[in-house]
Amino acid sequence: MDAARSLVNHVAVLLSSQLITSLLGFLTVVLLPVYLGDAGLGQLAFALSICTVLGAVAVAGTNLYIVREVAANRGRSSQLIAAGLVMRAPVWAVLVVITWVYISLRGTSHQAMVVLAVLFAVTLFNVLNGVLASALQGLEEMRWRSVAAVASSMIVLLAGLPLLVLTHSPVWFCVALLAGAIAGLAVNAFYFIRRRLPLSLPSRGDYREIAIGAMPFLALALSQGLYSQIDTIFMGLMTNDATVGWFAAAARLSTTVLLVPVVMTSALLPVLTRLGAAQPAAAALASRRALQAVLMLAMPLAAGLSAVGQPLFAFLHYPETFSRSIPILIVLSASWVVTAVVMVLACTVVATGRQRSWATASGAMLFLFGALNLGLIPLATRLWSNGGIGAAVANLVGELVFAVVALAIVQERFLGWREALYFARVGLATLGMVVAVRMAGGLSLPLLIAIGALAYGLLSVALRTLTVGDARSVVQLLRKERPAVTTTAPAPIAS
Prior knowledge:
By secondary structure, the protein is mainly α. 84% of the residues lie in helices and 0% in strands. The protein is built from 17 helices and no strands.
């Protein structure tokens, strides 16, 4: 199986599961503001952000290291899994104690502390499951990894929604998240148990090797974990639960926009790792094609969310107080497109072994992003009584700077004029879609979505960002036939 066919097959599997998990997750995202209100949602979002950072520290950068090492040498799977599992629990325990003492001394409410306690347990199962999921990704066992993700989401949906409707409490929804985390770990563990993977207590040399090898990834994971959650954490410390809830209601819609880049980068990393040393030209071509595909889908999704903000919130029956989320959504929509670009570039950097440069840049960007939040959240609170707008602007500025830095790290001529013109055409098609949606603003949300999709589709064909040949090539790859396209030189999806 060649690299292109392997990548498309992995993307197809991951996209199918990600669509299912995103749909299941979107149902909870939609209902959380309705049943929790802005304050309850704010408590949940703040605790989730803290636990996300805690999980990134407990993982210690070993997830990406395990993916890359297993992809390069599958015989090391047992050694890497054992070392990863043994290392994480003690780190998690120390972090939990430190965080619990600090948050409790701030005078946090009893319900918020219970939410945090349950999410601590969720984090433990997730960081342990990360070892197994990373090994499966390195083995390119995307189907099994996807089954675990779907099973976890199903448990959260089936248990969480009834509890949410009956109790209107974030605590019981967190209990459902715990059940889902346990289910995901059990499914992935069963894969290795069924294959009788031998696990033995790692030696000191094993620990030293994985610690040294994962060190650049640790800096990267810490900086990016903090980078993605620092806005919510800062708002939780500087504003109130309601403001955090307004921001969270808008931010959670990012699942729709970032679905494709999440899937694409998960499938791209092991493929680029294999290609990087032997076929650098093919690896660069795969990265550019992935970036084009991501932008072609992320730009209209983000712009569409921004254009239908008010009708969307009304359609979802959000309480009136969440109207404060609409300006936040408009700013965040732009930043999500840039985030999609950064995700693809980050995958390329890691796969080609330049993670040290990326970790250094991520650390520097973390200070910039923190400074932006520290300045803009209080400013937006004074100007509009909505610190979430300041956090959203900080996110956009930070992602734009990060994208420029990422392009410099990847390589000097990663993108040329052909790619720039292609992205400009995608932007024109997206702008035309927004105009069409705005002109039809009085219609119902389903009609607005249909009009937007039709307008974008027609404009994409007219501007040649999407052609029949592209669709035919994808179909051929999915059927495991050799595509009727040349791969001797990089080219946009449609020229």
